[in-house]
């Protein structure tokens, strides 16, 4: 999260945050695709 890759959090209260599910799903899919490409390159 510190390197800016993970989706931005959304503040939903004074002590609560959330994440947009579709953004997290895309991030996960991108990570899986990247892993698959790395395995194919070996």
From TrEMBL:
Domain of life, per lineage: Bacteria
Gene3D superfamilies: 1.10.238.160
Pfam families the UniProt entry points to: Phage_AlpA
Protein name: Phage transcriptional regulator
Species the sequence originates in: Arsenophonus nasoniae (son-killer infecting Nasonia vitripennis)
């Amino acid at each position: 999260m510190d390197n800016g890759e993970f989706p931005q959090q959304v503040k939903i209260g004074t002590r609560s945050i959330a994440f947009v599910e579709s953004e997290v799903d895309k991030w996960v899919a991108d990570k899986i695709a990247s892993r698959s490409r790395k395995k194919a390159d070996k």
